[in-house]
Queue: 4 jobs
Job 1
Amino acid sequence: MEGKKGTFDLGKTYLETRGFFPHAYWYWIGVGALAGFVFLLNALFGLALDILGPFDKPSATVPEDSEDDSSNVQEVELPRIGELSSLYTYHS
């Protein structure tokens, strides 16, 4: 297929040989269909959430041993920067 000024449109020829629609308006039809499905599926998802409701009743769990919170805290000593550099050096 020849375009303007005798140029060869490889993309349009490829689309025609594969059976796709080579016209430019099919691009906008695809964009419109994509936007339509986005809105449709989001609306259906919201409707399904509204109809079905939550799976279980929401409830917060409170630990029984909440009297002394300081007993759960542990002290951890972090390595110093000089000690870390010896861990990451490569010895052959």
Note: The chain has a mean pLDDT of 77.
Job 2
Amino acid sequence: MYSYVVAPLPVTYTSWLGERRGGEAQLEWATESEEDAELFEVQRSVDSGRNWSSVGEVPAMNRSTGADYKFTDFGVPGTELQYRLKQIDFDGAFHFSDIITIEATDNAQVLSVWPQPAPAGALQLRAAGFAGHTASLYSITGRMLVTFPLTGEIQPLPAADLPKGIYLLRINGERGLTRRILID
């Protein structure tokens, strides 16, 4: 014979919302009750939930009557974003919220590069609608440094060996598009 102990979750959510405001994502959530909750770790994914990174923490108010929370994620890429909350208890146990999605900006449907600024090996890009095309990276003086194929999905920018500075990324072809990038 088995017996089960059913314990209530430390946090009961009543809402979990997010929206894009310029280059920021404004996240808001509310709880109905909280018990033994230490903090909320806000996590973001830019690749449809395959990989998650922590973008900040918000201390839990730990109120039996619940609470309202806000968090702003600054300098977000224009691509579609997913967010989830990792609610961590005082004893180290954790629970994930549902995932919310914030749609891409109109210009992000074409070309996004992030984070900005960033070290050379950390840059990612997405050129939606340009799978099979090529892109070229130029120095600020106009010298072509590298040409590479575009996948139309999130991919690393091949700039690992470049020194700090300002560069231009150009999508080649009839609908050519150029973005300035900063390697820090």
Note: The mean pLDDT is 84.
Job 3
Amino acid sequence: MDRTSNETAMDDLTTVYLLDETSSSGELDTEERQNEEGDLPYEGTCGVESDQPPTQGRTEQTDRPALKYTVDKQYACVECDYRTASKTKLSIHTRKHTGEKPYKCNQCKYSAAQKCTLDRHMATHTGEKSFMCGECGYGTTNRFNLSMHVRKHTGEKPYKCDQCDYSAARKVHLDGHMTSKHTGEKPYMCGECGYRTANRASLTVHMRTHTGVKPYKCDQCEYSTGRKSNLNRHMANHKGEKPFMCGECGYRTANRYDLSRHMRTHTGEKPYKCDQCEYSAAHKVSLDHHITKHTGEMCDECGYRTADRSHLSVHTRRHTSDQSDYSSAVKSNLDLHIANHTGEKPHTCG
């Protein structure tokens, strides 16, 4: 075998450090275990591996010598570049492409690709939240969510973008960043309006704008919303807390997102760009409004365009109204005209 072949083969090998041979054998044996309920593979530390950054070395102190051996990642996914030494892990990974979800909830229609995901879901039925944050009292049904939550307090962001300065606390956020900012891929599309996004979670949230589903409920009033972040901002209104302050002008707000938006008034940053002209905006809602100028409502008589159908309706009356007597396209103008007849002067200087 020539040198090139050797180098290629070594790319599929991963070096692993173990404390001793006996400590590893049990883990390897359980990797291919079958669960007691059927022929679905045992999944070990499900959900944790997929969202943990690669470690540079063992941090646990021990007097036992570390042993080194090489794992052959012989099982390769035919859909992507994923490789693993375990046939079981490859089987689980493949479900991301096939959409297979063999684990079914017996209390609702929920299904999952991994048993641990189903276990976490079942806790939503029981209401049990056995894992608690010591900093703020946040409770969750599983240890993995708690470890992710704790990074909000520590500020740890172990996932680094190799193309810019972005870093994230969770791998899923880095994946979304890579797709939306660098590759430009948006494989998930809404069948109702053509909206496209880089990740499935964003599409799920978007679909609620069509279905009207608002699963996040305020326990202090009748407010409900389709986004958890919106509920968090709303709850801050009840508490009256405004912990986020602008260092430039003293503006305070209940959430970090609003502060980030506010800071653009000082920096002049306009990250939302129109792909049909040179327009840019500091806020996405402004860009959305602008886009309708390219695709929005138009008057057939004079070519007037507007982003709002109600504005077009008011405008159209200018072409159709009878000019022999006073008339107005806008009700407030008519109210002012009537006041000339009645002599009413509702607006007085204080």
Note: The mean pLDDT is 74.
Job 4
Amino acid sequence: MNQDKIITVTGTALNAKAGAVVRTEKGNYYIHELSSWPDSIYEKTVEVTGELSVIDHSQQSGKNAEGKWVQSMRGIQQIIQHAQWKVVPAAQ
């Protein structure tokens, strides 16, 4: 499954093993080619707009060509490409 569309999400800027992520009520969105958020943005509420790409990792076995277990990703990964973001000011 791979579908591309422009979206805007609002959530918390966090870092994960697979890179920078925005955690929302509807799930996590990874930011394409961003390994981590800058310290000035990390753990703040951000609004991110970009092109959504959805990748289904459910067919990955978790084993390499020699049959040894390796770290892998499972399930659906939502990636925002060409992302632009801004910090959302805290409510007063």
Note: The first strand starts at residue 4 and ends at 16.
